[in-house]
């Protein structure tokens, strides 16, 4: 028998963990009195997909967390969108509940170890006021809660231009939500405090004093969301580069102080809106980030929509992202002695490599969704992306032959399902 691929091993592990939780829950409930026993619900979701990119000297990875994707690593990659997840929800009393969600997908270290996406306890003080403690997904974008549930989204994946602005998507801490009826409209105010460590292929970002405030208004078919988030971000993996700059006196110290990521305040504001009367839908979001460091200022937006012809939904979207300086002259080489000019030039190259990672691009997307069976949908999507001069766009695993700027085409096909 041929051995299973790594992704399938992790998928089975995720399902086994979820089923194990359900088994324990069922056994617990069986021992308790039926009138007072907790209620448990098991569910799951997944995506099996492949992606092709026309760029041969880099990988389209969609997110900076994934170390490889389509393009250089593989002509057709199953690793970008494919995942499987299991979730257990528990209701202990009319007010007390909990949820645990485990996902298996490609991780920063090339493994597929399942990780915990949700793990929190919720207490519903009143029908309109609740508090959660534990791990939550930050609700700063319209599809934050469902961004990995492909079946719940009209397109293959959320526009990278907007959703890459906040690579830290979860928080370990406290969260409170209050709902208020305003005539025919419903206003929901949600606030959270916490912290998070996020690992990437070449660095670890630590977010402290993480605060989010989100207000959502729903009226009929319309939804409007306004969000604000801020955190102190530290990436110590960049310290050797900036420590080396400091060895070049006041000029190098000024550059290090300007760009280092040591407890730097990063803030985000965003606005999103949607209208979905049933036969058709339209969605749009705009966000801006001020990083006060190597990340600088960035903004992005998208708008998209589709029309439902029974089980078939064709759709289209346009997204754009821009950022401030993608390069810096760095240390003045002409004022340095020859034996220092070489090292200084290397430091300047390292600095500009980090600055060039900022997303400056626009993408036109067309695709179609076919709900061919109950609880499953097939999606096929084409994206044409134009990358701004000096930017590497949303690409990773850059090879020596890669040149910033240019354009690429991405073709995706997925089957999304829930159970």
Explain what the structure shows.
- The protein is of the alpha+beta class.
- The protein has a single domain (47-81, 141-418), classed as Porin (Beta Barrel).
- 16% of the residues lie in helices and 49% in strands.
- The chain contains 5 helices and 20 strands.
- It has helices at residues 6-31, 160-163, 239-246, 249-259, 338-355; strands at residues 39-53, 59-60, 70-71, 76-77, 83-91, 96-104, 115-126, 129-137, 170-182, 185-200, 203-219, 222-234, 264-275, 280-290, 297-307, 312-323, 361-373, 376-387, 395-396, 406-418.
- A 16-stranded antiparallel beta barrel has the order 1-5-6-7-8-9-10-11-12-13-14-15-16-17-18-20.
- A hairpin with a 2-residue loop joins β9 (170-182) and β10.
- α3 (239-246) packs antiparallel against α4 (249-259).
- The longest helix is centred in the first third of the chain and has 26 residues, at 6-31.
- The radius of gyration is 23 Å and the shape is globular.
- The two termini are 29 Å apart.
- 37% of the residues are buried.
- The model is unreliable at 1-34 (pLDDT under 50).
Taken in chain order, the helices and strands follow as: HEEEEEEEEHEEEEHHEEEEHEEEE
Query: What Rg is obtained from the alpha carbons, in whole angstroms?
Result: 23 Å
Percent range for helical residues? Answer: 10-25%
Shape: globular
Largest sheet features: 16 strands, antiparallel, barrel
Spans where pLDDT lies below 50 across 5 or more residues: 1-34
How far apart, in Å, are the first and last alpha carbons? 29 Å
* CATH domain topology: Porin
Portion of residues in beta strands equals over 45%
CATH class: Mainly Beta
- Largest sheet: spatial strand order: 1-5-6-7-8-9-10-11-12-13-14-15-16-17-18-20
Number of DSSP E strands: 20
Q: Based on helices, strands and strand pairing, what is the structural class?
A: alpha+beta
Counting DSSP H or I runs of 4 or more residues, the number of helices is 5
Number of domains: 1
Shape-level CATH architecture: Beta Barrel
Residue-averaged pLDDT = 91
